[in-house]
Amino acid sequence: MKKVLVVGGAGYIGSACAEYLLDHGYEVTVFDGLITGHRSAVDPRARFVEGNLEDRELIMRVCREGKFDAVMHFAAFSLVGESMQNPSKYFRNNLAFGINLADAAVAGGVERIVFSSTAATFGQPESIPIREDDRQLPINPYGESKLCFEKVLKWYHQIHGLQYAALRYFNAAGATGRYGEDHRPESHLIPIVLQAARGKRDKLMIYGDDYDTEDGTCIRDYIHILDLAQAHELALSAPESGHYNLGTGNGLSVKTIVEAARRVTGREIRTEIAPRRPGDPARLIACSDRARKLLGWKPQFENVEAIIESAWNWQLSHPEGYPD
Ligand code: UFG
Q1: 175 pLDDT exceeds 80?
Q2: 35-81 per-position pLDDT tens digit
Q3: pLDDT value at position 15?
Q4: How far is Cα 256 from Cα 269, in angstroms, rounded to an integer?
Q5: Is 211 a catalytic residue?
Q6: How far is the C-alpha of 250 from the C-alpha of 307, rounded, in Å?
């Protein structure tokens, strides 16, 4: 049985991946400092170590003692706006503390690291859909911190032989039966739309309807967290190290998401047009041919209503989010 250390396994995507690995026969240790993660999002079948990557001694010890075959790294801050206010927080946590993990993986004889990267490493895309080798020019410290860590992995592979996969998620969405999205504060479109449907918030503010798109609102590529989890598991046996864009390839506007959410929930969802949010590109759509070809990845949730429905079910069963 393969042993995997899931760093950030109490977070939104990390918890779903830990669950997926446990369902597929892996032995999982979750390492999480519970800064943005939730204790009750740690799968009870996993071993849990509470700690932060800032604690270099601790992560060194965990990796030396754990005899892990692989590490998955989800632990990051991911608020674009916050990164523009406080770049230090992003470069320290997402880059410097990430290096503690990479060093610990090397020292502990870990074969491979699978890293949560992001479409934000591309910045304003030069063409759509975005391919792995397209220009990467981040427009905020969040995206830059993730790109820097991709480069760390490339060099650690070359110098130390650490295998890696950098998975660039587009817009992660949806929930598994048990684990879902509970950011505080919430800034992501789908959970906010569903909170408006439940009456937990008054309305959705649509950030800009004057973009150069069909209906004037931004277009994104929403990918279910279970499909991301599948990609992580496949990346554990990837033939070579490298980068993969993960999205369905379907671009959907903010207004399309609201309409789909109205159909799924049968509820009224009030909206108001607000100014553009700084730093939002008009369109982000992935070309994921590389993951499909080299990893054998195939997203199961190609229909956005199914993605929204899973998030809706999770909100209904967790009206206040996680209890802790
Ligand atoms: N939006 C609204 N109103 C809201 C929230 C979002 O109109 O209340 C719009 C945004 O302007 C954007 C779209 O909905 O056009 C999606 O916004 P999200 O915040 O859900 O997602 P982003 O595309 O901004 O960001 C996501 C991740 C980032 C990552 C980025 C690119 O949250 O971490 O994808 O990968 F950097």
Answers
A1: yes
A2: 999 999 999 999 999 999 999 999 999 999 999 999 999 999 999 99
A3: 98
A4: 13
A5: no
A6: 13
Q: How confident is the model at residue 279 (pLDDT cuts 50, 70, 90)?
A: confident
Task: Please give all residues whose beta carbon lies within 6 A of any atom in ligand 1, as ranges.
Answer: 78, 80, 118-120, 170-171, 187-189, 192, 204-207, 218, 220, 254, 277, 280, 284
The two three-digit tokens of residue 200, written as one number? 């937990």
- The position carrying tokens 């760093």 is 7
Alpha-carbon distance of 17 to 150, in angstroms, equals: 20
Query: What integer is the mean pLDDT of 129-149?
Result: 97
Tokens in use for 180? Answer: 């879902």
Question: What does the pLDDT average to over 250-258?
Answer: 98
Q: Provide the pLDDT for residue 21.
A: 98
Q: Pick the catalytic residue from 20, 26, 142, 179.
A: 142
Pull the structure tokens for residue 91: 């470069």
**Tokens matching residue 304:** 């956005």
What is the rounded CA–CA span in Å between residue 63 and residue 110?
A: 8
Q: What is the pLDDT of residue 142?
A: 97
Interacting residues of 106 by C-beta distance below 8 A, sequence separation 6+ = 156, 160, 162
Report how far ligand 1's centroid is from the alpha carbon of 188 (Å). Answer: 5
Q: What is the DSSP letter of 41?
A: G
Cis peptide before 129 (omega within 30 of 0): yes
d(CA 141, CA 78): 10
Contacts 24+ apart (CB under 8 A), 235-239: 235/114, 235/165, 235/167, 235/295, 236/2, 236/4, 236/69, 236/70, 236/112, 236/114, 238/163, 238/165, 238/294, 238/295, 239/294
Cα torsion 166, 161, 148, 244 to 10°: value is: -20
